[in-house]
UniProtKB/TrEMBL annotation:
PROSITE patterns listed in its UniProt record: 4FE4S_FER_1, 4FE4S_FER_2
Protein name (database record): Formate dehydrogenase iron-sulfur subunit
Stretch list, region Disordered: 95-119
TM segment ranges: 284-304
Keywords, sorted A to Z: 4Fe-4S, Iron, Iron-sulfur, Membrane, Metal-binding, Repeat, Transmembrane, Transmembrane helix
Taxonomy, superkingdom: Bacteria
InterPro entries per UniProt: 4Fe4S_Fe-S-bd (IPR017896), 4Fe4S_Fe_S_CS (IPR017900), FDH_Electron_Transfer_Unit (IPR051555), Formate_DH_Fe-S_su (IPR014603)
Organism name: Nocardioides marmoribigeumensis
Amino acid sequence: MSLFSEESLWSRLDDVTGDAGYADDHPPRKGFFTDTSVCIGCKACEVACKEWNEVPDDGYLMTGMSYDNTAQLGASTWRHVAFVEQPVPSATTDLGMPSFSLPGADPQAPDPQGAESGDSGVRWLMSSDVCKHCTHAACLDVCPTGSLFRTEFGTVVVQPDICNGCGYCVAACPYGVIDIRKEDGRAFKCTLCYDRLKDGQTPACAQACPTESIQYGDLSELRAKADLRLAELHEQGVDAARLYGHDPDDGVGGDGAFFLLLDEPEVYGLPPDPVVTTKDLGSMWRHVGAAAVTIVGLGVASFVGRRR
Ligand code: SF4
Ligand code: SF4
């Protein structure tokens, strides 16, 4: 990828792996489709990720804000299941139970004994979040040591053994995914189980998910599946359902890990319209180059002028 090509830093890119320098016979791009409409919040994905990748615990403190104790993605939370509790207007449901009226009472009046039941007035949204394995991964573009690299599957992996802990990637990620582990000083995040992929296996989280909320596979097939699922939900009247991160023409060129959400992205703590943070890197370097040429030119002119 040319450092000075602005488009290559943020626009649509259909062959992300080829762009990273892999030969034409590279494997198809792999990714995750997380369908939050069938997530039951069991956290099997979080546990499987920790077990397989030997990720340390996050401590056992409750946040006091949610039933979720890990709160967000981090250096030791590569999968995070968000629990969103939303108040909803309470509704009553006619259960069809027989009711009785007192002598002389209006038989049409509501039954004071409650042959009706209301819901709790709360709905839960659960969503298992992860690194998005971006088409244009700003974390990778800013890493000065080459610790972050694009794999032959189009995913983004960090190699802690050559990470110097500078934290540039942390500031560059538009989703707040990658993080420095304090006790360790180096950056960590989801690898999409690169070691398992190389063995032809499914990543641990997708393998463990009992509801197939997390689906792994060829990105193009996952996108087609997601379109079908979205149409199905809309047909069932779930108008709020939407896809997030699947559009190759969005501000990050689409994500390798995308989601079906049941509400606005902000409700799940996701940025509504993410833009790759290195988008302006090309023009910045051009301006720096122009400024350097001007300074050198002025220096030469003043030197020549003084000698006359
Ligand atoms: S989500 Fe963040 S950490 Fe993951 S690939 Fe994109 S920029 Fe990098
Ligand atoms: S394993 Fe599947 S159902 Fe359980 S929390 Fe994770 S995504 Fe949801």
